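Reminder to self: tokens first, then the designed residues, so the page reads top to bottom the way the pipeline ran.
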């Protein structure tokens, strides 16, 4: 009887020992947490990114075209794109958030606490984003910008997403616009109104003509305060 019990204890120990590495493979390094953009999403991200994913999920319905559109019932409102944290992830987010999801997917293995057996790489998103520009200043704010595009999508044949991050550096409400200028002339091309509370930082994006090439796009950014909008 003792021999049988002893064997059972040893067997249980083996099961626990073998099960532990499977759980540990998804443990994040210090400073990172599971993204949880969808059930089973164990990509390690910053706590801020996980909170953003949860907020985007809550607002998913409000960011879709009410009657559908060119991409079916999940077609996003202007200014939003599918997140694509996995191939069937069609939650509508800003272009900057989609670029962040693709970046987090590519760094998933490096952010785990322990080395895991090689796994199939996450499907690469066709959406690309440039590096942020250095911070610049306009009246009452500071801002930076970048552009995003997907060479595989027809709407990006001659356009790019102009993406701004703008921060109110003063102690009162700021109202103005982020804009793009015509590629050939110093005239207004596209514009989007922005209202910022004191100290608030916000990301804003819109489609604008591509002033570069399809492989190396660009646009001409501009930020103005209300009262000076052409």
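Designed residues (230 positions):
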């Amino acid at each position: 009887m003792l021999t049988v019990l002893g064997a059972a204890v040893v067997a249980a120990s083996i099961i626990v020992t073998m099960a532990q590495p499977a759980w540990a493979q998804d443990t994040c390094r210090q400073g990172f947490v599971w993204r949880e953009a969808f059930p089973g999403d164990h990509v390690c991200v910053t706590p801020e990114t996980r909170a953003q994913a949860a907020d985007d999920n809550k607002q998913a319905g409000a960011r879709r075209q009410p009657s559908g559109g060119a991409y079916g019932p999940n077609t996003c409102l202007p200014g939003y794109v599918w997140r694509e944290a996995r191939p069937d992830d069609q939650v509508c987010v800003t272009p900057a958030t989609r670029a962040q999801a693709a970046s987090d997917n590519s760094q998933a293995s490096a952010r785990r606490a322990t080395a895991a057996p090689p796994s199939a790489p996450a499907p690469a998103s066709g959406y690309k984003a440039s590096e942020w520009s250095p911070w610049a200043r306009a009246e009452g704010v500071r801002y930076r910008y970048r552009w995003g595009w997907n060479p595989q999508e027809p709407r990006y044949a001659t356009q790019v997403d102009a993406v701004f991050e703008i921060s109110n550096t003063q102690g009162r409400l700021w109202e103005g616009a982020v804009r793009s200028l015509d590629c050939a002339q110093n005239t207004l091309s596209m514009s989007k109104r922005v209202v910022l509370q004191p100290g608030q930082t916000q990301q804003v994006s819109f489609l604008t003509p591509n002033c570069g090439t399809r492989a190396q796009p660009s646009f001409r950014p501009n930020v103005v305060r209300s009262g000076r909008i052409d």
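The helical segments are 2-24, 47-58, 95-106.
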